[in-house]
Structures are given as structure tokens and as C-alpha cells.
Amino acid sequence: MLSGRAGSVTARHPTRPSTIRIMTALRLRVFAVFALGYFVSYLFRGVNLGFAPFLTHEMGFTATDLGTLTSLYFLGFAGAQIPGGVLLDHFGPRRVTACVMLVAAAGALVFGLSHSMAAMMVGRLLVGVGVSVCLGGAFKATAQHFPVAQLTLVNGLVMAVGGLGGVAVGAPLSWLLTIAPWRSVSLGLAALTAAVAAIIWIGGPRTRDTHHQASVLEQFKGTAHILRSHAFWKTATFSALTQTVFYAMQSLWVGAFLRDVTPAGTVDVASRAASLVSVLGGAFIVGNIGFGALARAFERRGVSVARFSGVTMALFVLVQALLAARAPLPAPLLWAAYGALGGTGILTYAVLAEYFPARLIGRVNTTFTLVIFVGIFVAQIAVGAALGHWSAVDGHYPVVAHQAVWTGLIVLQTVAGLWYFMPGRRAGAAQPAMES
Q: Which CATH fold topology does 2-435 show?
């Protein structure tokens, strides 16, 4: 198991502080370089939130066009998850993450230089493929270098650094687009991505797994075992749906919701919407750090991480209902709660890491991420198509359109939540099957 391997160095030499210091420095380096990669991934995920008004005005894109274009990031991301997981387990997170990120840099170049929908779709798809291993690579690296007892907090910190990208695509990106065209911003992102790939290649540790390296075919069979596991789906479905909704909205549709649902007479609606997007992103960071620590604190008091995560995800669904109903509560408070609770499904990665064997961690993480991003891809298109059933006036959709969309998503999450809390086998029961 992870706990035995990740914690073995310090456990063998408890009286050697120099070893502890060296390992601490190594862990900090692992965290820093891979969290930076995930930050870039998160920037790309939400950048169309800021680009959307310009694409609508300059390219004449409809809501369906924007949903389709934005969703291709998630399609590329999802499609690369299983081969990405195999590559991570076979070649390690440093080499795979650094090399694949160069594909994202190329995609950003294509996107920024394109003048047609088709070419921009290709660029957006390449970006999704290129950053597809950033999260799985980070979690693989932390699983290799941190004790399993610390993974909830460390993975939460990785997500928090990525969440800074969610802050950046709010007010900061809105300001940047007042002084630079969106095409220049896209080209700048290409340069940033190439630089971060170089940092990961140079700064990432050259780690070799201690377990036997299976053949590529055997590794694909391991992924198939995971996808056939009832226990995996029971653990993952509620989390996957809540994260699907959160990321689909944060990366594009929350901007439209804020602009269209903001009460009439509000001064500078666009600026207010951008500010609330940044509030959401900032709260997401705090939530990832705080809830990761709280999960372990509650675990010491007898509350499992799985149950704690389930409660926080249920609260996230409740906040969505309050927003859809336009509850008479301060908007910054509601959107801060939305952001803080929206990422708590990340705790499921730690739950899965406790129960699946070490040799499958890369594939477990990327399989779970695959499920999430396929969901986001579908949700992006579905939300755009659903909104398209109502007529837009000056680019704005009626409040009832957004409420109908949110209600449908809330119902889906509620059903998944009921299954999550029903008694039954969880991932812990899957380990014997995975070991076979």
C-alpha cells in the first residue's frame, strides 16, 4: 500500500534529522513543480469565461457554439486520461507531464492564431490533451513522495494552487482583456505553458517505482478492472457529478448566469460578475485547504473521509438550490460557499488511494478524472443547448432558462447522493479484486 512505501524512508531512520530535512525539501519541490503544472491546466479550463464576450462579438458565436468550443478542452482531457494513466505508471510523472504539456502549448498557439470555428476547435482539443496529465501527474507524484495520511491535505493544496487559476480567469483576466486582445493572451498562455513544462522536466525528481513495471497491455487490463468495479462507481459517482457541475459552470456558464440573473438596475453587471467569479475562485482555494485538514481532523474522531466528503458534497447541492431559487442572501456569501464546497469531491481521490493497490494509483486517479471530464464535456454542450431553447435578448437569456438548467442538474446530483449514502460495498471491497 501507499502508506508503507511513501513513509518508509523516514520510518527506517527516525533518529536522522538530516534525512528528514532532505525528504522535506524533496517533498516541497515535488509539490511546487507539479502544482504549478496544474495551475496552468486550470487557467486553460476557465479562460473562455473571459474570452466568451469577445468570441460572441468578433466571431458571432452562439451559446451552443461557445458550449461546444469550450467543451472540447474537456473532451481532449477525458480522452487522454486512460492512456495518460498508463504512461504515468510506466514512465513516471516528470517525463510524461513535461512532454505532454508541450501539446497544450501548441494548441494555445493554434487557438490564438485561428480565424475559423473549426481551427479553434482543433486548438482547444489539443489544449485539453496537453494538460490532461497535470492533475493525475501531480497526484501520482504526491502518492510517491508523501505518506498516505498526508495525501488528503497535500492533494487539497495542489487543488488550491490550481484554484488560483480560477481566481485569475475572473477579475484579473477581465482587466487584462481591457489592455490586450484575447489572441495575444492566448499566445502568452502558450509561452507560459512551454516554460512550465521545462520547469517540471528540470525540477521534477527522477523517481522510479519500487514495484514491478507491468506491460502496457497489463496496465490497460488494470484500468478495465477499475471501470468494471461496482464499488468504484458507488464511491465515485456522486463526487463525479458534483465536480462535473462545478467545473462546467465555473469554466463558462457561471458568467452567463451572473450576467443574466443579476437584478435589473445593477451598475456595471460585467464587472460585478467578474468579481464574483474571483470570489468563487478564492473560496475554492480556501475550501480545498480547509476541508482537506478538516477531513483528517474528523477522521481522528471516528468520521471517515468518505462520509465527511459526502456531507460536504450534499451541502454543495443545497447551495446550488439557494442560488437557483435566488434566495435573499448576500451574493458574495452564496458564491463563496459555492466555491468552497464545490471542490470537496476531491477528497474522493484520497479515499480511493487508501483502498486500491499502489501499482494502480495512476490509473485509479486518471480513470476517476476521466469520468469527471466526460461529464463536464457533456454538461457544457447540454447547458448550451438547453439555454438555446429560449430566445436571447441582446445576448442575455431569461432567468427561467437558467433556473430550469440548474434544477435539472440539482436533481441528478440528489439521486447520486442518495445512492452514495445507501449501505453497500465501497472501494475498500475492491482491493482483493484489483490485486488478482
A: Growth Hormone; Chain: A; (1.20.1250)
